[in-house]
């Protein structure tokens, strides 16, 4: 997340909007084994390593939403799906450079891989599930619908400042920083 107030609020709104639209409503349960993280684009292997170490420590997968810089409103966020797949070793299945996709103006958001070539992800019975093949409809139109719905949901959220006060922004650079972020 960003450290400036407007960036933090935008990121927090994105987390709440994405969770609600993927799960099927504000009160719909999400996947307890998947966290949603909003941040900047991950550009080097050390950032990737820290993220995977953090997720392995919690035995969780992640929907990582890489937000464009503030002011770059025309660019949609990139979505990376990182699924925890292995015990005893920490193993992950990573599908990067994805996008949110919406079947219509009311359906749950799906996450489609680039061009749908590596399938798509959807919430089924409270679990984020990988499905073979692209989403059931034109990719470009579905991605545009998803972007519209996310913007609408983000702007309609109320009481986000209360949530921000309860969720302090932390710079996470190591596994110890991540563990401390879960302490209440």
Sheet/helix structural class? alpha+beta
Rg value? 16 Å
Shape: globular
- What can be said about the biggest beta sheet? 7 strands, mixed
In spatial order, strands of the major sheet run: 1-2-3-4-5-6-7
Question: What would your notes on this structure say?
Answer:
The structure is a single chain. With 184 residues, this protein is an alpha+beta fold. It has one domain. It is 35% helix and 24% strand. It has 5 helices and 7 strands; from the N terminus they run H-E-H-E-E-E-E-E-E-H-H-H. Strands 1-2-3-4-5-6-7 form a 7-stranded mixed beta sheet, with helices on both faces. The two termini are 18 Å apart. The mean pLDDT is 82.
Provide key terms for this protein.
7 strands; 184 residues; alpha+beta; 5 helices; seven-stranded mixed β-sheet; single chain
């Amino acid at each position: 997340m960003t450290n400036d107030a407007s960036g933090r609020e935008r990121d927090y709104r994105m987390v709440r909007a994405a969770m609600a639209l993927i799960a099927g409503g504000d009160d719909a349960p999400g996947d307890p084994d998947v966290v949603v993280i909003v941040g900047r684009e991950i550009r080097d292997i050390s950032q990737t390593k820290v993220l995977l170490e953090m997720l392995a420590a919690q035995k969780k997968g992640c929907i990582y939403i890489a937000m464009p810089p503030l002011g770059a409103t025309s660019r949609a966020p990139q979505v990376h799906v990182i699924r925890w797949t292995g015990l005893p070793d920490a193993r992950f299945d990573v599908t990067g450079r994805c996008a949110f996709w919406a079947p219509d103006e009311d359906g749950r958001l799906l996450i489609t891989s680039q061009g749908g070539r590596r399938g798509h992800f959807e919430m089924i019975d409270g679990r984020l599930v990988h499905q073979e093949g692209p989403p059931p409809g034109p990719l470009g139109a579905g991605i545009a619908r998803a972007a519209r719905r996310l913007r609408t949901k983000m702007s309609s959220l109320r009481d986000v400042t209360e949530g921000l006060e309860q969720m302090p922004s932390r710079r996470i650079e190591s596994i110890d920083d991540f563990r401390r972020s879960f302490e209440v």
